Amino acid sequence: MRGGGLRAYAIAYLLFLYAPILLLPVFAFNSGTIIAFPLKGFTTEWFAQMWGNATLRRAMLNSLTIAVSSAVFATCLGLFAARASTRFAFPGKGPIMGLIMLPLVLPEIIVSISLLVVLLGIGIPLSVFTVILGHTLICMPYAVAILTTAFSSLDRSLEEAAQDLGETKLSAFRLVILPLVMPGIISAMLMSFTISLDEFIIAFFLAGNEPTLPTYIFSQLRFPKSIPMIMALGTVLVAMSILLLTVAEYFRRRGVARTGQKDSGGFI
Amino acid sequence: MTTPMTSYAPARDAEGRPTPIAGRKPMIQCRGVQKYYGDYHALRGIDLTIHEAEFFSLLGPSGCGKTTLLRTIAGFEDISSGVVLIDGKDMAGVPANARPTNMVFQSYAIFPHLTVADNVAFGLRRDPRSRAEKAAAVDEALGMVGLKGYGARAAHALSGGQRQRVALARALILKPKVLLLDEPLSALDRKMREQMQVELIKLQRQVGITFVLVTHDQEEALVMSDRIAVMFEGNIAQLATAEELYTRPASRRVADFIGVMNFMPARILGETATGVTVEAPGFGQVEIPAANVSHADPGDPAPSIGFRPEAVTLLAATAPATDRVTEGIIDEVVYYGDMSYYDVILDSPDTFGGQPHEIRISMRNVFGRELPDLGTRVRVGWSPGSLILFR
């Protein structure tokens, strides 16, 4: 059969990618304390233990605070950058946009250490706030990429038409441009939120004594008896990530359909 | 397009008869309008007056500045120097949203997130009228452009022709003093375009609003406009009615841009008060009336004569000679159904370098008359009054 080898390769590839993640819920509901087959029995004890853990709740609260704030900041800043890059010509536009997108490829560990050095140097104490700063930095490129797509699919005369029909520059933006890029804005916020929520390196360096979900999970890996609880937590996080990315993609596609444009691709 | 929107129609007198355009009050006045984009000189001193309820066209090849001029009238571009007056008021510093103009964009710029009715009602946001009155105005505007009952449709689901109509309704509902149209028909197919040309003329006569149309299609401009400004490189080359442009082009360049024109090299032999005597291949010596003397292209100042394909006729072999006759051989016949083009190589003496000179003749087709075969020897009838001298 032609293509048989390639098909087997594709299946093996997908298994390698996703089978480990599928194991998370399997062990999260397994009543044995050791992560090994054969499975013992069904339990929801690990989920109960998870909800009962005060440090974990604190980590969860921190992570949500950081993720929501970073998403809002990155999207707001991204809005300005995307609007400027699609609507106006100005000197140094290429290099500036390049620098904004750079954190996408910069090693996070380098970014984290540099930020740590700078923050300590100017005397800002490490806290949830410093993590928000770091996460805003790394979420910006994603937000800008999504928003640039949203802005560049807009016909420039839409804004002029609104002005021509009696609106000021500001109200034309609010009445025409904003509704049309709103799906992009929501999509950018959800994407940033997801990235921030499971980010480890920056959180590890910049959080000080505050736990976030990823750093908390890492710290618990040393204790074998808390591993099943981590499995339960992992299950919840994976489910949330998939849900959020699906919602983000839904809004992006709806935006494309609403403006009657052709889909030029997204992150999913 | 049935319901009349406005009772006032400044294009008509008290008895409802059309008034001459030249006698109407000026609606748009441009005085020495210049526009620079950096080093690029887009408008080089535009002077023109467009009258109330006039259908005016800005015609020219792409890059001639016609769209820039339209956008300066709309208020989307600042002018570098000069004055633009609309209805007597200086528009300096007046933004687009405060000008008594509305625009139909080339892309139509229909708001894709709104329904057709919300699109049309967009400009009424600051209108103090009640919701019901506004809805009635929207219905009326939609009826006027032939889209009655389309109000609830999603705008992005419309066809090109329908978008164009929505754009028209959205602009006209505000009863602007001037409607600006930026190549509004260029995205439509030929049949739709011709239909919309007629509808636009009717609409303009009905609402009595000044229309300013930008187009690169000379046929469209000739068909639709009361007057036309032909633009080249940021200047107005000629401002005239369609008929004047066609029969009395101000320069060889205008003549070449409007319709089909035959050009022949000419040699000037003498000049009197009544006209200029020239010699041209196949035409011999002829006196061109002074009224038919126009300007040569500054880039190629050699004198030439020009004439339209319908200004000369193919004579049957037995027909008596008309005013003047020259002879030639049919090189090509292009059949268009109602008429045909005949390319004829004229017999000419060696005084013009000896190379053959070909002219294009158009004639209406008559049922039962056979088209002449290629290579047929024909006689071409013409008169000095239909020749134009460019020098």
From TrEMBL, chain A:
InterPro entries: Bact_Polyamine_Transport, MetI-like, MetI-like_sf. Keywords: Cell membrane, Membrane, Transmembrane, Transmembrane helix, Transport. Residues 60-248 form the ABC transmembrane type-1 domain. It is a multi-pass membrane protein. It holds the Pfam family BPD_transp_1. One of its GO terms (cellular component) is plasma membrane. Its main location: membrane. The chain crosses the membrane at residues 12-39, 59-82, 94-122, 128-154, 175-207, 227-248. PROSITE patterns: ABC_TM1. It is found in: Cell membrane. The keyword Membrane applies. Belongs to the binding-protein-dependent transport system permease family. CysTW subfamily. This is Spermidine/putrescine ABC transporter.
